[in-house]
Design goal:
The protein contains 23 helices and 2 strands. By secondary structure, the chain is mostly helical. β1 and β2 form a beta hairpin. The longest helix is centred in the last third of the chain and has 27 residues. The radius of gyration is 22 Å and the shape is globular. The two termini are about 15 Å apart.
Length: about 500
Amino acid sequence: MKWTLRFCDAMNPRLIAKIIGLLLLVSSFMMLPPALIGLIYKDGHFWPFLEGFGVLALIGALPFFLYRNIDAELKIRSGFLVVGASWLIVGLAGSLPLYLSDVLNLSLTDAIFESISGLTTTGATILTDIESIPHSIKFYRQQLQWFGGMGIIVLAVAVLPMLRIGGMQMFRAETPGPMKDQKLTPRITETAKALWYIYLGITVMCTLSYYMAGMNMFDAICHAFSTISIGGFSTHDESMGYFNNSLIEMIAVIFMVIAGVNFASHFLAWKSASIRTYLVDTEVKVFIGFLAVASAITSFQLYVTGTSDSLYESIRQGTFQAVSVGTTTGFTTESFYLWPGALPLLLILFATIGGCAGSTAGGFKVIRMILLFKMSMRELYRLIHPHGKYLVKINGKTVNYRVLDSVSAFFVQFLFLMCVFTLLLASMGEDLTTAVSTTLACLTNLGPALGDAGANYADISDGGKSILAIAMIFGRLELFTLFILLIPAYWEF
């Protein structure tokens, strides 16, 4: 009884229920656009989305209206619980229309896996023969990624200022990257709105670019959704290879790079009307340099092994695949998991680094790799000059020791989870290549993997899919947000 009272005082479960109810209400409206697509294309899938809308709206409305008069500040401790719970709940909720579809005939596990994969922008799929799938479901999969790219909670904070419940706590818990306290605007609501305006604007530009390059409007919208969210879902089994269009591939490369850059940098560049923001940002420069090196290595390997017919094709395929995997998007033009030698594994390892902090990309994040490198160099200098004082700086500013500690902790936790999830998958009968690559692909939110998951994840066992779905959420929330819920001290009041 005493523990229950302390829990209620510290966590305010009624406030948490109100927030999650509100997020479910927001999520229910995601069912309406694909329902409209179903009516336009007359694909017979209007009702599964309408039923999903009704169920989610009802479930979300009950706690929201029951506790609508509760007006309290959301504490930091509660913020982590809300974010973790909401991503799990919204991921489960997103599986409803997929499970209800009589065309897909998915098991509940498969439906949840596909939903969470979309929402976390992982892009791992269990579906085959995607061309035969109704347009409404195709659109829904892409839409899941687009909303998940910027984050459901960031969306809620952006469009629902009435939250007034410590939106900053949820925003910080969900925002990727080690330096979470940077503000673009004085108010968190305005910051979230600014990010969403930029996100929407880039998506519109990407859509128009795809359309003018030869895609029909439906494919252009769908692929813009997955490009800007760095999700990687496609409306075709062959992904971008279906179009066999070098202009489309070049456009995809450009926008994948744009989406992989910190959206705060985009905001500052737009506000100052200058590209200088990018030129002086160490993370952006290293990110572009890393993708250039990865593209060069991949192209060279394709050429010397004779995998591609010509130098041009080697550069074309190598650049596209390296950028797609390096940004953790996961689009493909060829079955790269069949490429010779160590090239497939090398590409998967590229995804470990990922994009910039504050972008829609997954992975370890470039800024963390920079800081780890600088920290390791600092220790080497200390061995040479034991009494010397060496500071770690980014963009000319000294990095706080707490940020450095968090980067080190993140690295340890990432390796720990890699080992745990790999062992769990191996214990379920998956071969080592499949276990390692799928774990890495899901923790980095890449999607494409090697081994039995090279083509898709349909052959992975239900238990393996459940584990990988958890890995996706861990990757999307960057470990800490969920890890903290597993620490006994978190539940001590």
